[in-house]
Amino acid sequence: MSSSVSSPYSLGFLVVGLAWAFWILLPKYVRWRSRVAMLNAIPTVGPTGFLSGFVGTYRFFTNAKDILQEGYEKASPGRMMVEDLMKATDDQLSMIEAAAETLQVEYTLSKEVVLHPYHVAIVRTPMTRNIATRFAEVRDETVSAFADLIPAKDDWVKVPAYKTSFQIVGRTANRFFVGLPLCRDSDWLDLNTNFAVEVFISAMIINLFPSFLKPIAGHLLTRMPSSMKRATKHLAPIIEERLAREDEYGTKDWPSKPNDLISWLLDEAKAEQREVSDLITRILAIEVAAIHTTAFCNALYQLAAHPELVVPLREEVEAIVEESGWTKEGVGKMRKLDSFLKETLRFSGGGGIVNNRKVLTDFTFSDGTTVPAGTTIGVAAYMHHHDEAQYDNPYTFDAFRFYNMRNREGESIKHQTISPGPDYITFGNGRHAWTVFCCV
After folding, report:
1. Checking CA distances to 388, which of 47, 110, 320, 346 falls within 20 to 30 Å?
2. Helices then strands, each counted (H, E), the chain
3. Tens digit of pLDDT for each residue in 29-73?
4. For residue 225, with 0-12 CB atoms within 10 Å meaning exposed, 13-18 middle and 19 or more buried, which class applies?
5. Which residues fall within 8 angstroms of residue 286, CB to CB, at 6 or more apart?
6. How confident is the model at residue 294 (pLDDT cuts 50, 70, 90)?
């Protein structure tokens, strides 16, 4: 009796369960099929079939340049793609989400850096506005760093360019960020340099794991706890002293307040963002970006390869310094130097893929290609900067390429290193140009 009564109910529950599962799973299946169709319609490079992802990853690590070149030639015209990315809204294509995924910020830094990226606005406004104000200090640190690390000698000496350039950039950037005496503290500088390298290496390895294993890999590979401990030793007393001054005077604008990154963060931080640990995390994030976005070392290599450039560059610098002094305004007049640096970045810039964006909603490019949500896209910078459609003789290093462009009628303010455009994407493009590196 019990069995005969329960059977209809069991059957009913089974039917309802199957109907409910069908109702839930069908849209997901349709979405999955639609995504696959969109991806299949996009020209691709690399292996296909079982384990193709692992094989493709290995090939990319060992031969990325050729793979990117093949993909660049198959894709839409580079300039058009860049322009489409520039026009897209943050709700369509997210730079912050792409950076968080690429650098696995949840494990290498902190989720808060992505969830509440208020430090991005600091890079755009107070940091940029204070370049002129702090210029003399930055120059002083540059001179001091060169004197310590590359002292003048009567004879030739060997200097490790890559390591030394990191140290000089680290000291100069930190004079701007945290000031004296911390900017010259050997442990603080060593922490920043090594932490920056560790973030990129850890992220690269974590990204090799499937999603369900990334939390385990992230926990095992991250150096964040030990780095935070070292950073706290240096920064906590400074931050706590600033907070105490605010309490003492009852305002953020207390007398003799330092004009540096710590103060700028405290001015913008809200509630729990003003906790010492959160502030330190954001300082480390900005340090990672600053130390890894410099043309300094490549510029040294280009000067060594083209010694004939030393005299004209030196003559320009000396003439302008005599006229305007060592000021931000004076440096802005050094057109040949600016052209040399921009050409260095174009010709031998380290960015393989830039303008990275996470697709939040299905996005269609001008040529009709649709990229599904959840995909990460970017532009192959080296290929774009060596495209004959963008530049004449792109594989020739022409130090004064952009200087000559600026001498054309009506183009005197164009083609500067700080002026990104569809043909020059070293620092990203659109609303997020330059600040892209500080959104990790």
Report:
1. 47
2. 21, 5
3. 777 777 777 877 788 888 877 777 778 878 888 888 888 888 888
4. exposed
5. 119, 123, 177, 261, 438
6. low
Give 440's pLDDT tier (boundaries 50, 70, 90). very low
Ranges of H-type helices in 292-350 = 296-305, 310-324, 328-332, 335-348
Residues 6+ apart with CB under 8 A from 319: none
Measure the CA–CA gap between 405 and 409, rounded to whole angstroms: 9
Q: At residue 433, does pLDDT exceed 70?
A: no
The pLDDT mean for the chain works out to 86
Phi first, then psi, for residue 62 (nearest 5°) are -95, -20
Residue 395 CA: distances (Å) to CA of 95, 300, 406? 30, 19, 21
Dihedral sign, Cα of residue 91, residue 95, residue 97, residue 101: positive
What tokens appear for 315 in the block?
A: 């003559």
In degrees and rounded to multiples of 5, residue 385 shows phi and psi of: -80, -10
- The token pair at 194 is 């090594």
| Model confidence pLDDT, tens digit, residues 315-329 | 999 999 999 999 989
Q: Residue 418: is it exposed, middle or buried by C-beta count within 10 angstroms (0-12/13-18/19+)?
A: exposed
Domain edges within the chain: 109-294
Would strands 376-380 and 353-359 be described as parallel, antiparallel, or unpaired?
antiparallel
pLDDT digits (tens, 9 = 90+) for 98-129: 888 888 998 998 888 888 888 888 888 888 88
How far, in Å, are 1, 143, 177, 292, 415 from residue 418 at the CA level?
A: 84, 23, 20, 17, 8
Query: SS3 of 304, please?
Result: helix
Residue with structure tokens 């079939």? 49
What's the sign of the alpha-carbon dihedral 296, 424, 351, 292? positive
What is the pLDDT averaged over residues 283-296? 80
Give the SS3 label for residue 421. Answer: strand
